[in-house]
Amino acid sequence: MPTIISHFFLSFFSLFFCISFAGCATYFSKSAFLEAPPELLAQNSRIVLLASNDEKLKIVARLTYLNDLDSSIYNGREYFFLEIFNDDEYVVLPESMQLTMFGRKPLWMRSIEEREFDDLLTLYNTMSNAYLIAFNTPSVFERKRMQIKLSVQSFQPAVFDFSYVILDSKL
Protein backbone atom coordinates (compact mmCIF):
# COMPACT_ATOMS: atom_id res chain seq x y z
CA MET A 1 0.00 0.00 0.00
CA PRO A 2 2.75 2.57 0.79
CA THR A 3 4.31 2.01 -2.63
CA ILE A 4 1.08 2.88 -4.46
CA ILE A 5 0.66 6.10 -2.47
CA SER A 6 4.33 7.04 -2.88
CA HIS A 7 4.08 6.26 -6.62
CA PHE A 8 0.98 8.47 -6.86
CA PHE A 9 2.65 11.40 -5.06
CA LEU A 10 5.84 11.01 -7.09
CA SER A 11 3.83 11.09 -10.34
CA PHE A 12 1.76 14.04 -9.15
CA PHE A 13 4.87 15.98 -8.03
CA SER A 14 6.65 15.27 -11.36
CA LEU A 15 3.64 16.44 -13.36
CA PHE A 16 3.30 19.59 -11.21
CA PHE A 17 7.05 20.29 -11.56
CA CYS A 18 6.97 19.97 -15.38
CA ILE A 19 3.89 22.16 -15.78
CA SER A 20 5.30 24.84 -13.47
CA PHE A 21 8.58 25.18 -15.34
CA ALA A 22 6.98 24.95 -18.78
CA GLY A 23 4.95 28.06 -17.93
CA CYS A 24 8.04 29.91 -16.71
CA ALA A 25 10.01 29.07 -19.85
CA THR A 26 7.28 30.54 -22.04
CA TYR A 27 7.11 33.70 -19.96
CA PHE A 28 10.85 34.36 -19.85
CA SER A 29 11.48 33.51 -23.50
CA LYS A 30 9.72 36.71 -24.64
CA SER A 31 11.56 39.97 -24.22
CA ALA A 32 9.61 43.15 -23.50
CA PHE A 33 10.95 45.00 -26.56
CA LEU A 34 9.56 42.37 -28.92
CA GLU A 35 6.09 43.67 -28.13
CA ALA A 36 6.66 46.83 -30.17
CA PRO A 37 3.38 48.07 -31.65
CA PRO A 38 3.16 48.21 -35.45
CA GLU A 39 2.87 52.01 -35.51
CA LEU A 40 6.16 52.33 -33.62
CA LEU A 41 7.88 50.03 -36.12
CA ALA A 42 6.43 52.06 -38.99
CA GLN A 43 7.58 55.35 -37.45
CA ASN A 44 11.14 54.04 -37.12
CA SER A 45 11.30 52.75 -40.70
CA ARG A 46 12.15 54.46 -43.98
CA ILE A 47 11.69 53.04 -47.48
CA VAL A 48 13.56 53.77 -50.70
CA LEU A 49 12.73 52.60 -54.22
CA LEU A 50 15.39 52.17 -56.89
CA ALA A 51 14.37 52.07 -60.53
CA SER A 52 16.38 51.10 -63.57
CA ASN A 53 17.05 53.39 -66.54
CA ASP A 54 13.84 52.16 -68.18
CA GLU A 55 12.01 53.27 -64.98
CA LYS A 56 11.08 49.75 -63.88
CA LEU A 57 11.17 49.21 -60.13
CA LYS A 58 14.13 46.93 -59.39
CA ILE A 59 15.10 47.32 -55.73
CA VAL A 60 12.98 48.10 -52.67
CA ALA A 61 14.72 48.67 -49.34
CA ARG A 62 13.28 49.28 -45.87
CA LEU A 63 15.60 50.41 -43.08
CA THR A 64 14.38 50.33 -39.47
CA TYR A 65 16.19 52.23 -36.73
CA LEU A 66 16.26 49.83 -33.80
CA ASN A 67 17.66 52.04 -31.02
CA ASP A 68 14.41 53.96 -30.57
CA LEU A 69 12.56 50.69 -30.06
CA ASP A 70 14.71 49.60 -27.10
CA SER A 71 17.82 51.66 -26.44
CA SER A 72 18.82 49.71 -23.33
CA ILE A 73 20.49 46.84 -25.20
CA TYR A 74 22.57 48.62 -27.85
CA ASN A 75 25.61 49.73 -25.81
CA GLY A 76 26.53 52.98 -27.55
CA ARG A 77 26.04 51.87 -31.14
CA GLU A 78 23.39 52.66 -33.71
CA TYR A 79 21.62 49.52 -34.96
CA PHE A 80 19.51 49.18 -38.08
CA PHE A 81 17.53 46.38 -39.68
CA LEU A 82 17.67 46.39 -43.49
CA GLU A 83 15.18 44.48 -45.60
CA ILE A 84 16.02 44.63 -49.29
CA PHE A 85 14.23 43.11 -52.27
CA ASN A 86 16.28 42.84 -55.44
CA ASP A 87 14.64 42.17 -58.79
CA ASP A 88 17.68 43.12 -60.87
CA GLU A 89 19.47 40.08 -62.25
CA TYR A 90 22.70 42.05 -62.74
CA VAL A 91 23.01 43.24 -59.13
CA VAL A 92 24.47 40.86 -56.55
CA LEU A 93 23.68 41.78 -52.96
CA PRO A 94 25.32 42.52 -50.56
CA GLU A 95 28.56 42.75 -52.59
CA SER A 96 27.30 45.56 -54.83
CA MET A 97 25.79 47.74 -52.10
CA GLN A 98 27.36 50.15 -49.65
CA LEU A 99 25.81 51.89 -46.67
CA THR A 100 27.25 55.00 -45.04
CA MET A 101 26.25 57.34 -42.22
CA PHE A 102 27.96 60.76 -42.39
CA GLY A 103 30.37 59.27 -44.94
CA ARG A 104 31.43 56.50 -42.54
CA LYS A 105 30.96 52.81 -43.26
CA PRO A 106 29.23 50.58 -40.71
CA LEU A 107 31.23 48.78 -38.05
CA TRP A 108 29.71 45.57 -39.36
CA MET A 109 26.83 44.26 -41.39
CA ARG A 110 25.62 40.69 -41.21
CA SER A 111 22.95 38.71 -42.96
CA ILE A 112 20.04 37.54 -40.81
CA GLU A 113 18.85 33.99 -41.34
CA GLU A 114 15.22 32.93 -41.22
CA ARG A 115 15.63 31.15 -37.88
CA GLU A 116 16.71 34.46 -36.27
CA PHE A 117 13.50 36.35 -37.06
CA ASP A 118 11.17 37.34 -34.24
CA ASP A 119 8.36 39.84 -33.66
CA LEU A 120 10.69 42.77 -34.27
CA LEU A 121 12.99 41.49 -37.01
CA THR A 122 10.67 40.14 -39.66
CA LEU A 123 10.42 40.31 -43.44
CA TYR A 124 7.39 41.82 -45.14
CA ASN A 125 8.41 40.14 -48.40
CA THR A 126 9.59 36.53 -48.23
CA MET A 127 11.77 37.10 -51.31
CA SER A 128 13.79 39.81 -49.52
CA ASN A 129 17.16 39.58 -47.81
CA ALA A 130 17.69 40.89 -44.29
CA TYR A 131 20.74 42.46 -42.66
CA LEU A 132 21.58 43.75 -39.21
CA ILE A 133 23.85 46.80 -39.36
CA ALA A 134 25.81 48.59 -36.63
CA PHE A 135 27.32 52.07 -36.83
CA ASN A 136 29.33 54.03 -34.29
CA THR A 137 27.14 56.41 -32.34
CA PRO A 138 27.14 59.86 -33.93
CA SER A 139 27.58 63.02 -31.92
CA VAL A 140 24.53 64.74 -30.43
CA PHE A 141 24.60 67.30 -33.24
CA GLU A 142 24.94 64.65 -35.96
CA ARG A 143 22.07 62.61 -34.51
CA LYS A 144 19.69 65.48 -35.28
CA ARG A 145 20.42 65.08 -39.00
CA MET A 146 21.02 61.33 -39.17
CA GLN A 147 20.80 59.95 -42.70
CA ILE A 148 21.91 56.60 -44.07
CA LYS A 149 23.03 56.57 -47.69
CA LEU A 150 22.50 53.40 -49.74
CA SER A 151 24.64 53.07 -52.85
CA VAL A 152 23.95 50.16 -55.16
CA GLN A 153 26.04 49.55 -58.25
CA SER A 154 24.43 51.02 -61.42
CA PHE A 155 21.74 52.94 -59.46
CA GLN A 156 21.57 56.49 -58.13
CA PRO A 157 22.33 56.68 -54.39
CA ALA A 158 19.29 56.74 -52.10
CA VAL A 159 18.97 58.26 -48.64
CA PHE A 160 17.09 56.97 -45.61
CA ASP A 161 16.37 60.20 -43.73
CA PHE A 162 16.04 59.74 -39.97
CA SER A 163 16.56 63.44 -39.27
CA TYR A 164 12.90 64.33 -39.03
CA VAL A 165 11.05 63.43 -35.86
CA ILE A 166 7.78 61.56 -36.00
CA LEU A 167 5.47 62.33 -33.11
CA ASP A 168 4.40 59.47 -30.87
CA SER A 169 0.91 58.31 -31.71
CA LYS A 170 -1.41 55.41 -31.12
CA LEU A 171 -3.54 53.98 -33.88
Question: Order of strands across the widest beta sheet?
Answer: 1-2-3-6-5
Estimate the global geometry from the Cα principal axes: globular
- How would a crystallographer describe the biggest sheet? 5 strands, antiparallel
Q: Please give the count of helices.
A: 3
Radius of gyration: 23 Å
Structural class by sheet pairing and helices: alpha+beta
What distance lies between the first and last C-alpha atoms, to the nearest angstrom? 64 Å
Total beta strands: 8
Could you state the order of secondary-structure elements as H and E? HHEEEEEEHEE
| Helix amount | 10-25%
Average of pLDDT: 77
Beta percentage is: 25-35%
Q: What are the segments in which pLDDT stays under 50 over at least 5 consecutive residues? A: 7-33
Structure write-up:
There is one protein chain. This protein has 171 residues and is of the alpha+beta class. The chain has helices at residues 2-29, 38-43, 140-143, and strands at residues 45-51, 57-65, 77-86, 97-101, 108-111, 129-136, 147-152, 158-161. A five-stranded antiparallel beta sheet has the order 1-2-3-6-5. The protein has a three-stranded antiparallel beta sheet with strand order 4-7-8, with no helix packed on it. β7 (147-152) and β8 form a beta hairpin. The protein is globular, with a radius of gyration of 23 Å. The chain starts with a helix and ends in a 10-residue tail after the last strand.
